[in-house]
Amino acid sequence: MTATVRRRGTDRRFTTSDGTVLHVDASGPRDATVTLVLVHAWTQDHLEWDPVLPLLPTGVRVLRYDHRGHGWSEPAKPGTATVAQLADDLAELIAELAPAGRLVLAGHSMGGMTVMALAERHPELVESRVDGVALIATSCCDMDRLTLGLNGRAGRVAARVDKTFGRLLNRWGAEHVPIPAPLARPSVKWLAFGKKVRRADVRAMTEQFLRAHPRSVGGFRDSMSDHDRRKALATLRGTPTVVMVGDRDRITPVHHARVIAEELPDAEFVLFPGAGHELTYERTREVAKRLSRLLRN
């Protein structure tokens, strides 16, 4: 089965080769010389890039989309809730919607892992067309050892809770997690954000989490536990790359970003004091500034 796409204004429905329909948002001129592909995080969707979008240079083609099992895309089919599958989805989407010209890839959290998996599974695409990469609050390994920023016994308990939560989601039969948004927001705020949190940002992320398909995101959590793509980062050497992380990130903490930077010694390493995991919300201007630099290289 070949990948197909149906236009619907600036929103599109892209069908992958295994028949999964993904929601895509495309903006900017079709004949632009560079296309920026924005790849979102676990349990979020393409709307996480809303704050960044208006601050990007004009004349750039921007593609953002919802991973399978997230946002307005269809749930992941059995056995396809993996980071490797997300990399293949990304390769197909690029082939259909950005078949020529320069590419800049920006991935947040699981989106960054998707970009790394793309380098592993489709190195010829990355080597021939990608002129810039932003790895935002993400990791190349050790996602099976999360302590959520807690130390000692509390950290070990947090790790067990994290794994239990993933397994529960994996078995969930409903289409959405039936938690009222006001009850979910305090946990989202504590887990995902650093200092000086805006209520609107917490609301936006909570809405994205509650839109995600539980069984799909549970499967992706299992896949992220096995994610080790340190070797794949070699494909990105020589490509202008920026690695960004907040010093209050509980999900992919600073030492995860430093491992990436060790594998990519020429990358720009940016540490944001006081910021948590949600850099597209918490450090919008700084993220947009660095994406703009990559686009202008």
UniProtKB/TrEMBL annotation:
Q: Does the keyword Hydrolase apply?
A: yes
Name the chain's protein. Answer: Alpha/beta fold hydrolase
Per its record, what are the GO molecular function terms?
hydrolase activity
Q: Which residues form the AB hydrolase-1 domain?
A: 35-282
InterPro entries found in the cross-reference section? AB_hydrolase, AB_hydrolase_1, AB_hydrolase_fold
Organism from which the protein derives: Amycolatopsis thermalba
Which UniProt keyword terms apply here? Answer: Hydrolase
User: What is the superkingdom listed in this entry's lineage?
Assistant: Bacteria
Acetylation as a keyword?
no
